[in-house]
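> tool_call: predict_assembly(chains=two)
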Amino acid sequence: MFLRFSQILLIYFLLFSYVESAESGGMPQLNPEFWFSQIFWLIITFGIMFILLSKLILPKISENLEVRKAQISENIEAAEKQREESDKKLKEYEQLILNSKNEAKNYFNKAREEILKDVDKKRESLEKEINEEVSKAEKEILDLKNKSPEKIRKIAVETSSDLIKKLIGVEVNNSSISAIVEDVSRKTN
Amino acid sequence: MASNPMYQFNVYRIGPEIKLGEVDLSFTNASLFMVFSSLAVLIIFNLGSKKNSLIPNKIQLLAELSYTFVSKMISDTAGSKAKPYFSFIFSLFMFVLFCNMFGMIPYAFTVTSHIIVTFVLAAFIFFGVTIIGFIKHGFGYLKLFVPSGVPVVLLPLIVVIEVISYLSRPVSLSVRLFANMMAGHTMMKVFGGFVISLGIVGGWLPLGFSVALTGLEILVAFLQAYVFAILTCIYLNDALNLHH
């Protein structure tokens, strides 16, 4: 900064000390010989440049910039729209999955209940059958049990009469034998 | 004569002498570099605006960045009312910038190192801004010289100072650019002369200085163009939005 300032001071000094001797050399800037030429050509060149820039080139650049801006904002808008749509689709999809899960659960529960009901029914009927069979068998056993002493007695009487016949060769009255057998069996009992 | 550091600022005729009555309007080396600068601006920005692709190429990017740079500078300093003057300030900035930058090429002529050129530009801006101010605000524009919140006793003094500072605007604007350009180029020429006169033994130090100064001068060339444009914006702001 100081360097720049001292330079400018030097130039001011040069400027003012050369003012009087400008035409004899010194600073060419103060020689008015070509001042009008410079002004003339400055106006022409700057004027042409200004007109061409302001009429042709700058509007085009500004249009380019605006077109780009519009295009970018349009693209951003479209992207936003698509994102919203995809969000919506995602929600729909999630809802769909939730629904189908619920449905599957329902089906499963229903099927389980039905099966359980069926099993219960079958078991009940089976138990009933089994009980019937058991009671029947028990009855048979009881019958058999009740009938057996009579049969044993009969067999005993017959065998003992046969035995006596073979041993002694005497016919014995069946009724007496049965009385004895009855007596014996009562004792063993 | 070539060792004179001021020799580089000489203007000489190129081609035939053109005279309009008594006035010499010949084409000179200064005119040549004005043509170069404006042509360079036109070519670069024409190329930069020709094709409009969504992703700009290098030259289009350059043109668009310059456009947004200048338009931001104007809207920051002078507000949205200054939009109609955009193309003038843009042309001004680019013209001064390219003249300054062309001056950095060895043996080239620096258009902006001549007080008459910068003064014509500054005077045009000064008159333009003053006319705009009077058109927008009528005689109310004179309120510019009466800042609010100043004690009445001091008012006469302040008004005189304000008027002088307003009238010295074109002088300060033109001399700032011209003096910076001339000083830089003179310094470089002086150091360049030292390199030759001190020879192979002692010439290295001024050579280094010359290299450093070249970098500095490129910075100054940009900075002065920017300052010129931004001061124009500030003056325009005074004329458009009148509040001190």
